[in-house]
Description:
Elements: H1 6-10, E1 18-19, E2 24-29, H2 33-50, E3 55-58, E4 63-67, H3 77-92, E5 96-97, E6 104-111, H4 114-126, E7 149-153, E8 164-169, H5 175-184, E9 188-191, E10 198-202, E11 208-212
Parallel strand pairs: 6-7, 8-11
Antiparallel strand pairs: 1-2, 2-4, 2-5, 3-4, 6-8, 9-10, 10-11
Helix pairs in contact: 2-3
Pfam families: Glyoxalase_6 (PF18029), Pterin_4a (PF01329)
Enzyme class: lyase
Organism: Angustibacter luteus
Amino acid sequence: xxxxxxxxxxxxxxxxxxxxxxxxxxxxxxxxxxxxxxxxxxxxxxxxxxxxxxxxxxxxxxxxxxxxxxxxxxxxxxxxxxxxxxxxxxxxxxxxxxxxxxxxxxxxxxxxxxxxxxxxxxxxxxxxxxxxxxxxxxxxxxxxxxxxxxxxxxxxxxxxxxxxxxxxxxxxxxxxxxxxxxxxxxxxxxxxxxxxxxxxxxxxxxxxxxxxxxxxxx
Length: 218
């Protein structure tokens, strides 16, 4: 399956959906558990018909979905097609989307020697040292219980410094609002040279976080 470009995804007219790190994400405001379950049941039927299945989280007020062609590790036309079908189901059931709602947290760790680090953290976080992306060394929990951990290559160093930081992925059209809210709450912009791809913020004690979007990522 051919990987879709970001331009193709943004031009697909998926008003309910936003691309975060890898997948398409959507949140639907079902309002109660029974409505949510009815919606998920209809989505299940559509997914079975398409032989393509989203990740689904059903909570009392909302249903969160993520779409990615897991067999090829990227977004393809079948993700766009199923996203469009799910939006149709939501509209038919009178369920509103919350496009600003999706968010995704990833962990980033500076490392001079990624492979030993990745096996350690994979064993600790997932129970197996083998849940490591063979190309990038990312630790990916197949159960989705812990955030993805990726490694930022750095030179070896002995001086104490911050080694971990959070990556917060948000919809590209709400990133500036989220950054402004964090600054108003006492944070500071440390580096915005890569905006809109990411902006580095610091909390009042200097701990850093990257606010990431899908834009301008080559």
